[in-house]
Fold this sequence. Notes:
There is one protein chain. By secondary structure, this protein is an all-alpha fold. The protein contains 13 helices and no strands. Helix 7 runs antiparallel to helix 8 (181-204). The longest helix has 29 residues, at 51-79.
Amino acid sequence: MTNSGPTPPSGAARWWAGARLKTLPAAAVPVAVGTAVAAQPDAGWSHGIVWWRALMALIVALALQVATNYANDYSDGIRGTDEDRVGPLRLVGSGLVPARQVKMAAFAAFGVAGLAGLSLAAAVGWQLIVVGALCMLAGWFYTGGKNPYGYLGLGEIFVFVFFGLVATMGSEYVQTESLSQPGVLAGIAVGCLACALLVTNNLRDIPGDTEAGKKTLAVRLGDGSTRVLYLALIVGAFAFAVALAPWRVWALVVLVAVPAALPPLRAVFAGAKGLDLIPVLGGTGKLQMVFGLLLTIGLWISV
């Protein structure tokens, strides 16, 4: 029998695919932006940033992202909701890797996040242990457990809170041991784009999720309203970034990223479905990276 499909990855390539490295900007951007918010005037070339803390915060964020990806792969796989998947490869659903191994990979990544987080807690305060534990629980129970909240339409709230507010404001807090209004605004802006990524993913998966009984927010809202939500999140990201201007005027440089938002927006409102939404996901990820880089630079040079 001739197999005309792509050859499945083998060895370490399987694990790289399962880690879904293209999602890592969602973890790196809030750390970069939150660290830039923490920059202090008249504090030398580093603006008072403790770089080892920034590095540990980045490791925590990246490890939590990878852990959540593996955890979702495991939980969706054992439920059978990934058997007819349009998007990226899933290790358990495809049968390439035993479920138990993927579960252990998730726990290992959570462990890396925990170790890096403990170093920050030792320097900053025990409260970070509580925040870290909540992040891990949220990552696991997104699709794990008997009643995963990702199946109830609450996934966007998780992403907004943990990959927007918590990651951005937490990165500010480990530097200054305080929170600020600019940190909140930046966290909202970053959270909007992180949610836009999930909305794109769930818009693509509406048919399969509906059949599997996975009631994501996109399934609950329907195709048309989900496309409007995508637009609102993109506009919201830019609006809250612009709102930072009274504190850091060069935050306005983020508007240079507007052209990067146009191709995915056009595709969404042209009615792209299924495989045609995969480039939209890539375009949204590119927008997130450009947006995050520009906002980080703008916040930094405004100090």
